[in-house]
Amino acid sequence: MLEKFLPGFWNSVNRPISENAKPAIVLKPHHFSNNAVWGILNGETPRLLAGKARSYRVSKKKSSAEDNGYWSDVLGETDPFQERYRDNMEQFLNQIIQLPNHAVVHLDLQPDGICKNCAAGKHCMGTNYKTENPPMDTLRGETAALNLILSKLEKYEFRPGIDFIAKPTAHTLYDFEGRALNSPEEPTPISAEFNSLLVRIGALRYIRAKYGEMGWAYQVELTFALLSNTN
């Protein structure tokens, strides 16, 4: 089955992944199911996906009754920056689509190409900040998202050590303690240990392809994983 989807993958990729391997890109685990990334892994057009990403965020910013600084943190306040957001997103998506299946992706807490598009990006390494939804522990949320990906890699018989490998990483998160991102009070720096994953992008493309037109099903699984890991 893998050979049918990824021609030559098994034969061409036999070297172990080292913990010291330099990844082609970094991707936060919860961004794996981001609509733009989900689409690009399915071979859709970067320009169209980037435009949709920008339009969605602009509409959410305008319609949010209680912004709490989140959408401003992402998009900024001016139209030129929002256009730049689209252009930068397109560049990141182009980078992903051009990667060969054996290229290594680092699923980690550190800011990725989506985070680096943000106007301020306080939320990217923030935790327990207030939005329209209840504050969430970022470490627990990203762990749940990563564990879901790991369960799919194991289900589809990708090879530990060759197609993916765990890598412990250390980070500093900024705890807003339930306050909004635009709160005048500074967040508290906290240390966070994370069991990240180095994985070949061909494996992520395969997981995406297994869902076909039912991408919503993965989102449902992710929602349940997040709820299970935060209770």
Please describe the structure with a list of short key phrases separated by commas or semicolons.
44% helix; 15% strand; five-stranded mixed beta sheet; globular; 231 residues; alpha/beta
How is this structure best described in words?
By secondary structure, the protein is an alpha/beta fold. It has helices spanning 2-5, 9-12, 35-40, 46-63, 70-75, 79-97, 138-155, 201-211, 215-230, and strands at residues 25-27, 104-107, 126-127, 164-175, 188-200. Strand 3, helix 7 and strand 4 (164-175) form a beta-alpha-beta unit.
* SS-derived structural category: alpha/beta
Residue share in β-strands: 5-15%
Q: State the low-pLDDT regions, or none.
A: none
Count of DSSP strands: 5
Strand order of the largest sheet: 1-2-5-4-3
Order of helices and strands: HHEHHHHEEHEEHH
Molecular shape: globular
Give the averaged pLDDT, no decimals.
Answer: 85
Query: What's the tally of helices?
Result: 9
Gyration radius, rounded: 18 Å
Distance between the termini: 37 Å
Number of domains: 1
Q: Report the helical percentage.
A: 40-55%
Largest sheet: 5 strands, mixed
Outline of the structure:
The protein has helices spanning 2-5, 9-12, 35-40, 46-63, 70-75, 79-97, 138-155, 201-211, 215-230; strands at 25-27, 104-107, 126-127, 164-175, 188-200. By secondary structure, the protein is α/β, with parallel strands linked by helices.
Secondary structure layout plus pairing:
Layout: H1 2-5, H2 9-12, E1 25-27, H3 35-40, H4 46-63, H5 70-75, H6 79-97, E2 104-107, E3 126-127, H7 138-155, E4 164-175, E5 188-200, H8 201-211, H9 215-230
